[in-house]
Write a structure and sequence with these properties.
Keywords: Methyltransferase, S-adenosyl-L-methionine, Transferase
Distance between the termini: 17 Å
Number of strands: 9
Number of helices: 7
InterPro entries: NNMT_TEMT_trans, SAM-dep_methyltransferase, SAM-dependent_MTases_sf
GO molecular function, one term: N-methyltransferase activity
Strand order of the largest sheet: 3-2-1-4-5-9-8
Pfam family, one: NNMT_PNMT_TEMT
Order of helices and strands: EHEHHHEEHHEEEHEE
Family: Belongs to the class I-like SAM-binding methyltransferase superfamily. NNMT/PNMT/TEMT family.
């Protein structure tokens, strides 16, 4: 149901795995990410550099889902469709500053805004800022965690804003999204790497 010409992954981290499936629904792909070190990881994979992370297992998994075995073709198609890797900051009215781009048809974001914002008010504002990057009638795909206060990466503990399902849906409505479809699944985490109580998947359309 979600298709378009121009696709933006907002807050990519150092990863490219979500692009493997997105390539089937879009013609052009852009990644944006706050941390320069993460942007460099994406660019290393994009440019086939020797020290780039090996995404072959994820590629094989997507190929299996698509019922074929040519995982290298998936990587090639993503590299061909990837246009640019931009800096971003959800706290800015133009999150892609200093760059200015035409609104995108589809935006995908995962585990980003709850790690960026320290309050519900900031979260609502960040969703509004991100919504400015989507054209009218365009689609947003969002994945995140519920009621998580921290997560651990390489032994370092990071803050996460506790969110309830209604917090996320209310923020989307305030930002002008409609046709909000939410799916919640999973149980509590182990409490070691994080303390989330569930994960949510949302698709919605900008009015």
């Amino acid at each position: 149901e979600v298709k378009g010409k121009r696709f933006l992954e907002f807050g990519s981290g150092p990863t490219v795995h979500t692009l493997f499936s997105a390539r089937n629904a879009v013609e052009e792909i852009t990644c944006c990410e706050f941390a320069e070190c993460n942007r460099k990881q994406i660019e290393q994979w994009w440019n086939r550099e020797e020290d780039a992370h090996d995404w072959s297992e994820a590629l094989k998994f997507v190929a299996q889902l698509e019922q074929h075995s040519d995982h290298e073709r998936i990587a090639t198609e993503v590299r061909e469709k990837l246009q640019e890797v931009l800096p971003c900051d959800a706290r800015l009215q133009n999150p892609l500053y200093p760059n200015i781009r035409e609104p995108y048809d589809v935006i995908m974001t995962s585990l980003t805004l709850e790690a960026t914002c320290e309050s519900i008010d900031q979260y609502n504002e960040a969703v509004v800022n991100m919504s400015k990057l989507i054209r009218q009638g365009g689609h947003l795909i969002m994945f995140g965690v519920l009621n998580e206060s921290f997560y651990v990466v390489n032994g370092e503990r990071f803050f996460c804003l506790r969110l309830k399902q209604e917090d996320v849906e209310n923020a989307l409505k305030l930002a002008g999204f409609e046709k909000i479809k939410t799916k919640v699944q999973g149980g509590p985490s182990s409490g070691v790497a994080s303390d989330f109580e569930g994960v949510f998947f949302i698709t919605c359309t900008k009015q």
